[in-house]
Specification:
This protein is of the alpha/beta class. The protein has helices at residues 36-51, 65-77, 110-113, 128-145, 157-167, and strands at residues 7-14, 56-61, 82-84, 150-155, 186-192, 195-202. The protein has a six-stranded mixed sheet, sandwiched between helices. The longest helix is centred in the middle third of the chain and has 18 residues, at 128-145. The chain is globular. Residues 215-220 have low confidence and may be disordered.
Length: 221
Amino acid sequence: MSSDREITTVHLLRHGEVQNPTGVLYGRLPGYHLSELGRKMADRIAEHLRTTERNIKAVVSSPLERAVETAQPIAAAFDLEVRTDPRLIEAENVFEGLKFGVGDGSLRKPSHWRHLRNPFRPSWGEPYRNQVGRMLAAMADARDLARGAEVLVVSHQLPIWVTRCHVEGRRLWHDPRNRQCTLASLTSLTYADNEIEAVTYTEPVKDLLPAKYNRTFSSGA
């Protein structure tokens, strides 16, 4: 990476744990807030970024409640306001409001089959490429808010993961159980001028993660 180029880091943060007592795939549905543990995760991330002396100049969030609530203590730690960007929202999914996950028997329901015909697109929701396109555009605008410094962007598991796959040259179709994007994890992309030149992944709240989140499909993202 050339030393005479402007270096900016965009940290993609997945929100913390959500209060979801019925275990549905909540997707873009309103009214899903952080659980008590999720709020603890958000506070821990804020403390982590502050004590590691990150040069955060802006905080941008998906408009969904769980993302904004994750962003708020971080913004407060750096004396910033939370900006929202609808391009950072969760992926659209036809199974919103239902209990639907890998290994739960959903694939045996005939009413679901027409939505599962093409996992490469995928046929049950927003195309992966569309997610990548809107995420990259939102990240570029976030980068421009913090040129030469760092910006914290709060989004959701699937959009973050497929964006990382795209940047790293991987296929977008994948097994959802193998996403490396745990709750309150940071996927950090380093820009040299306008080009992404490095990606790193960290889990600052790994010790807070319940066992059920270890490499399992999440009912929300």
